[in-house]
Amino acid sequence: MTINWFPGHMAKTRREIKENLRLVDVVIEMRDARIIRSSRNPDVEDICGVKPRIILLNKSDLAEENITALWIKYLSVDNIRVLPVNCHTGQGLKNIKTEMNRLLKEKHDRMKKKGISKITDRAMVIGVPNVGKSSLINKLAKNKIAKVGDRPGVTKSKQWIKTKLGIELMDTPGILWPKLESRETRLNLAYTGAIKDEIVDMEELALNLVKFLKKYYPDRLEKRYKLDKLSENPADNIENIARKRGAIISGGRVDYNRVSVLILDEFRGGKLGSISLERP
């Protein structure tokens, strides 16, 4: 599956992020808790340098808690804090201010010595498309200021948003990187909807997902689709799921597109349970 998706606004956003970095105190980098490695833009370290960073592992309710805990331990260093969150429910978001205060303690102490008591910190929110940046901002601002969509590429331009936490947030459009070298990365981003469905082969995508689930989460497949026994051939499992769900067309043939979309939608919606596609 070859995917190279780097629209013009993404190249522009990359330049703007680097230019605007001096305006913020902290970078809030969002990743998908199910694909923590694949939802990391490898350009982030180069762009952000030594700027303090908070990594939010969004949709943590859809990932295995013990795997997420391993990732948090793996990613945490002196100037980087890692938090599992759910931007839809707001779970874990209150910890952002606490961690930001820890990262900016020296700055706050200097300002207090100068007699400045009211301190407003600024943060830039970055991440790949469809990872939940706008949902985060809306939740913190308690208002639907940032545009939200269930598809990548909804946010198109820079926005400053005030929150009740004493933090001003700079929203930015989601950015991927110019070339997705790793097959695993391409698949994981497509599984979770970070890459537009219109430019991927949904049948091939579902086939690979079922193959992965059969290896690591066979019980989830059997339980969700009421399968008596999984086949070693993922195509057979796709066909069995289609027949269980009535994804059949004239002549008793399997509607592969329909069953593929069904499987991917149910995975993305958490109906197959908490699933982590990557380990540290």
CATH architecture of the largest domain: 3-Layer(aba) Sandwich
* Rg (CA only): 21 Å
Residues in helix, % = 40-55%
Shape: elongated
Structural class: alpha/beta
Largest sheet: 6 strands, mixed
Distance between the termini: 24 Å
Q: CATH fold name of the largest domain, please?
A: Rossmann fold
Strand content: 5-15%
Number of DSSP strands? 8
CATH superfamily of the largest domain: P-loop containing nucleotide triphosphate hydrolases
**What is the residue-mean pLDDT, rounded to a whole number?**
87
- Total helical segments: 11
**Whole-number total of structural domains:** 2
- Report the uncertain regions: 146-156
Q: What is the CATH first-level class name of the largest domain?
A: Alpha Beta
Q: Can you put this structure into words, describing what you see?
A:
Helix content is 40%, strand content 14%. It has 280 residues and is an alpha/beta fold. It folds into 2 domains: 8-171, Rossmann fold; 201-268, Orthogonal Bundle (Conserved Hypothetical Protein Ylqf, Chain: A, domain 2), CATH 1.10.1580.10. The strands form 2 sheets. Strands 3-2-1-4-6-5 form a 6-stranded mixed β-sheet, sandwiched between helices. The chain has a two-stranded antiparallel ribbon with strand order 7-8. β1 (26-32), α2 and β2 (53-58) form a beta-alpha-beta unit. α8 (202-216) crosses α10, α8 (202-216) crosses α11 (256-268) and α10 crosses α11 (256-268). Residues 146-156 have low confidence and may be disordered.
